[in-house]
């Protein structure tokens, strides 16, 4: 290869590099804003979906807790009533036994 040929190939390689760099830069300019907008929109949708799921989960948990607390109160009221009846029956039996003993 002569100096002229090396110079020609060197310029061709350099020019190819520049054209490739320009094409890459153009692709970035054309694709990046869209990709950023799409990514931002995707992130917004995902955060909205997660917020909705979290809200639904919290609401469901509140309902379950309220239901469980309500059933617990009903259970305690029922047992309290049974215990009060048993105490009253015990007092009556004690009073009756005391009156018989006297």
Say how many strands there are.
0
Report the uncertain regions.
Answer: none
Structural class: mainly alpha
Distance between the termini: 138 Å
Radius of gyration: 42 Å
Q: Main β-sheet, in a few words?
A: none
Order of helices and strands: H
User: For the residues shown, what is the average pLDDT?
Assistant: 84
Explain what you see.
This protein has one helix at residues 3-101. The protein is mainly alpha-helical. Helix content is 97%, strand content 0%. The chain is rod-shaped and about 135 Å long.
In short:
With 102 residues, the protein is an all-alpha fold.
Properties at a glance:
about 100 residues, mainly alpha, 1 helix, about 95% helix, about 0% strand, rod-shaped
Set down the secondary structure blueprint.
Blueprint: H1 3-101
């Amino acid at each position: 290869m002569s100096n002229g040929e090396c110079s020609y190939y060197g310029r061709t390689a350099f020019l190819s590099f520049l054209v490739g760099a320009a094409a890459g830069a153009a692709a970035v300019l054309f694709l990046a804003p869209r990709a950023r907008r799409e990514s931002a929109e995707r992130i917004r949708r995902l955060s909205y979906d997660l917020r909705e799921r979290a809200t639904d989960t919290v609401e469901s948990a509140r309902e379950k807790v309220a239901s469980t607390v309500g059933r617990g109160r009903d259970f305690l009221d029922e047992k309290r009533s049974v215990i009060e009846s048993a105490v009253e029956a015990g007092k009556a039996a004690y009073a009756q036994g005391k009156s018989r003993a006297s």
